[in-house]
Fold this sequence. Notes:
Layout lengths: L5 H16 L19 E8 L9 E3 L2 H11 L10 E3 L11 E3 L4 H8 L3 E8 L7 H6 L11 H10 L10 H9 L11 E3 L15 E2 L18 H14 L5 H30 L10 H14 L8 E8 L8 H26 L5 E7 L18 E6 L8 E2 L22 E2 H12 L6 H4 L17
Amino acid sequence: MKKINRREFLLRSSAAAALASTPGYAYSQGFELSGAFDDYRAMVCVFLLGGNDSFNMLVPNTDAEYNAYAASRQNLAILRSDLLPINPVSLAPGSAAFGLHPSMASMQALFESGSASFVANVGPLVEPTTKSQFQNQSTILPSQLFSHNDQQSQWNSLNGAGTSKTGWAGRVADLIESEVIDQRMATNTSLSGTSLFQSAQSSVAYVMGQNGPLQFTGFSDDPTSILFDQKTAFQAVLDAQYNSIYERGFAEIQNRALQAADTVSTAITNAENSGVITTVFPSTPLGGQLSTVAKLIASRVELDMQRQIFFVGVGGFDSHDDQNQNQPGLLGGVSDALAAFYAATVDIGVASSVTTFTQSDFGRTLTSNGDGTDHGWAGNQLVLGGAVNGRDIYGSYPVLEIGGAEDVGGGRMIPSTSADQYAATLAKWFGIPDADLDVVAPNLSNFAQRDLGFMIA
Length: 457
């Protein structure tokens, strides 16, 4: 940690304490809207659990850069002849300066059509950090770098050098809570368990299964069934008057779960029966989750939704071993599922209103451990949708050289773009004013560029 004076320490401490502990902190920045949103927008976070080796997902394809990549990656390097060429619009036409992993043909097509882009060399940072600053410990660094749980928390909460009980999607939901009070479903919905990403101070995320809400067992809506009587009796218990705040709280949670399960299940069934989604999704866990998300988006009018944030996750990316055997299926699975989801948003007619993006624990080391890679830092992320400034690479792609300017040791690449900038760019598109982006991304003020430019305003 770099040394700071007493005044700076007190300023930072008081600001952090105010943000973490003050009721209604989300509105303290003066966030004002003229009324409810007049459009629909959704963000879909696809978390690649374990740490995606994204320098094999997006590979440099010019002579010098590819040679540095191949020398660093050794037996893990993708053959140049196997790369799927892409042509970013910011580079010379036909330069084919980058290629995708050969299993990602679906993503190649999306990129070339202008519906997808990459954000390069991005990761958690508290402030801009150079290799010498890292080595001299003269900069503030995110806590517990290279640890799975801690770095998942970093991406989900942007907590920097401290801790946070809220995630950046949760803070977004808090900021807009008063503007979406008529929604029949929570702003935040997870199909992959409870996530810090959607934890909030005020708003409550809805957690459901891959195919829809987890139903209460022992209940029925058929009046001729004894299970109907059980449901009626249970509802009567919940509706009773209780003196204890804990009893009232428990009843409220159960009531909310019952109502949400019925409402959301009906909406999913209606979307299935409508036939509006003609795209066939891959029969994979990620394909199943994204298929359900598509059905919920198709039900946006029925549910009076204006803003939604979805969290889905897929594991298997902790590639310490068997990387060459497992990575094609992992990246191919992500590519195909994301392409199907984008096609479904076209079916629904909301492709420009839905933005999908990836997050992952961290990138992997450039060096091979013989059969795989170890925990790294920076990596490359995908963004796709009709509102994405597509067919380009944002941020600064590093030279993948062991011991090079961006390698802080062991082939771990230092981020040149922060996760705060990445999140803030998405939140701004979602409808958060610039003045309140520092609530969403607490370290954003340390970086000159607040908007990375990958979203159409």
